[in-house]
Each structure stands twice: as structure tokens, then as C-alpha cells.
Amino acid sequence: MQLITCPWCGPREETEFRYGGQADLAYPADPSALDDEQWARFVFFRDNPEGAFAERWCHDAGCRRWLRAVRDTRTYVFAETRPYGRTA
Amino acid sequence: MADTSVLTRRHPLESRRAALEALVGDPAITLEPLVSAVDLRVDPDGGALDALAAALGGPLPTAVDTWTGIGDGEALRLGPDEWLLTSAGTDPHRWEDRVDSLAAPFGGMAVDVSAQRVALRLHGAHARELLASGCSIDLRPGRFGRGRCAQTLFGQAPVLLVAHADDDLHLFVRSSFSGYVADRLVDAAALR
Ligand SMILES: [Zn+2]
Fold first, then answer.
1. Of A12, A73, B106, B121, which has the most beta carbons under 10 Å away?
2. CA-based nearest distance A1→chain B, Å
3. Is B132 domain-assigned?
4. How far is the CA of B87 from the centre of ligand 1 (A)?
5. What is the topology classification, in CATH, of domain A3-83?
6. Within this chain, do residues B27 and B87 fall inside the same structural domain, yes or no?
7. Measuring CA to CA, how many Å separate B43 from each of A81, B49, B61, B75, B166?
């Protein structure tokens, strides 16, 4: 089975994790200035790259912490995982 | 306030005790006594760990997925800022008050979780083999020796595994999942 390396717990089976979608989405700086279409784009629209994709995963069955992963959408290979919100 | 003195505490796995005791061979599976437990959340870098260690009678684990002995219980590190602290002899509410008041000056908090989990003990040369029938993590003694612990899945149930020795492992499980885990262990032991 696919293993995902949790920054805290080490390599664990994918079934221990929950997918959290695209990472690094910035909340609108001025929310009240957005019209409906802009809100819809923020809430519902996501990138769908062929290749490296930065995404959120939560280690539900382990430390219950969110992590930021970079996964190749063609091969499913994880290039990196790190604690969420950290740059290194 | 209701009179709780007439209520007797019953082990959540009481109905499985006979089946576990009836197992022959290795490993022996026994029910651990119920203990008081708190979930501690605190910043590990703010000096709280030293203060707690001094007050509770033992160092707290500095690495995630490791455990240490403290006083009459254990300190298990569940995550970067989360610990499970147990005490065999302290009343649950006193245990919560004690740890919470120690953590509060550092912005931390403790919550009584005594009723959340029960513990099973697997004792014998084949304890790891039996656990491996439902766990995917590397349980070999070299990778999961005394002092290690891990939250993971046993079958479908979230469990907390604690390595006491090569042939002695404890398994914490939420009370509501404990029947499933006990039944699965009994089945796996019978198939060996
Ligand atoms: Zn983890």
C-alpha cells in the first residue's frame, strides 16, 4: 500500500490519512469586496495540474496533525511532506 | 448532586474477560487496570516540560511517539504539542486539576480523558506477531522497542500501542472500539 511519510510519525499507510485538497489557499484579504463569482472561485475552484501538486493531508489515525505534501498527480509519488504552515 | 457512591465502575471489556482468559498459548492477553488519564496540550518549547517533569516525578518524552514513566503512571507523546499522562493512583478529577494547574502558566491545558480508553496487555514472545495481524507499522523490536509508542490502526480501530519490552506490549483503545479489538485479537490468536 502507498505510504505517506508523516513529519511526526514517519511512514504510515495512506488509510491513516485524510485528504484536505489543495494547499496554500489564501483567504481573501478584503472579503466584503468580493462578488459572488469571486467567492465561488475561492470556495470551489481548484488547480488540477498534471504533475507536482501541493496539497493538505491530515494524519487522522496518528498524530491528527495537518501536513503539506507535494504529490505528483501522474505517478502518485510524494516528493515531500512537512508540517503545515512551515516553510522548512 | 447525584449520589454516585452506589454506582460501581464496570470494565468496558468485562464481557470479553472470559474469552481472553480462555486463550491458551502465547501471547497472554489481559485487561489492564483502569487508570486516570489526561490529555495535555502545551507548547513544548516554553519550559512547561521541565516544570511538569519536576512536579510529576519523571521526565516527559521529548520525541513524538515515545513514552516515559512518571510517578505511578506514564507520559506518552501523541503529537508535537500533545501528551497523554496517566496515573494509577490519583482520582481522575484530581489528576486533571493537578496537571492543568501545572500547564496553565505556560498557556497549556489538561482535560480528563480517563473514560476514553481501556488498555490490553499482550505478553509473550509472539505478541508482536499477533499485533502485526492487524497493524501495518513496523513492529520489529529494533524499530519499536521499549520506550516507543504509536497511534495507528488495528484493523479498523484507532489504537495507541505502547512498547514495554520485546515481549510486552500494551494497547490502548477507545472504549467503544474495545470489543471489536478484543474480538479480533481472540480470532487472530485462535488462527495462529
Ligand atoms: Zn502523524
1. A12
2. 10
3. yes
4. 25
5. Folate-binding fold (3.30.2270)
6. no
7. 22, 9, 13, 15, 32
Return the pLDDT at A59: 97
Q: Does B101 share its domain with B152?
A: no
User: Which residue in chain B is spatially nearest to A2 when comparing CA positions?
Assistant: B136
Decide if A83 touches B, using CB distance below 8 A. Answer: yes
DSSP per-residue letters across B170-188: EEEEEHHHHHHHHHHHHHH
Assess: ipTM above 0.85.
Answer: yes
So what's the pLDDT on residue A87?
A: 58
Q: Which residues are found with C-beta within 5 Å of the ion, ligand 1?
A: A 6, 8-9, 59, 62-63
**Which of B78, B80, B153 faces A16 most closely, judged by CB atoms?**
B153
**pLDDT tens-digit profile of B84-116?**
999 999 999 999 999 999 999 999 999 999 999
Helices and strands (DSSP H and E) totals, chain B? 5, 10
Distance in Å, CA A32 to ligand 1 centroid: 37
- The CATH number that applies at residue B77 is 3.30.70.1520
Q: What domain range is B62 assigned to?
A: 36-112
Provide φ and ψ at B57, rounded to 5°. Answer: 85, 40
**pLDDT above 90 (res A16):** yes
Per the structure, the count of domains in chain B is 2
Tens-place pLDDT, residues B27-45: 999 999 999 999 999 999 9
> Could B80 and A83 be called an inter-chain contact, meaning their C-beta atoms sit closer than 8 Å?
yes
Question: How is residue A55 written as a grid cell?
Answer: 496539497
The residues in A 36-75 lying below 8 A from B, measured between CB atoms, are: 61-65
The beta-carbon neighbor of A63 closest among B136, B151, B153 is B151
Give the integer Cα–Cα distance in Å for B131 and B160: 12
pLDDT tier at B167, thresholds 50, 70, 90: very high
Nearest by CB: A8 against B80, B136, B153: B80
- In this structure, is residue B139 part of a structural domain? yes
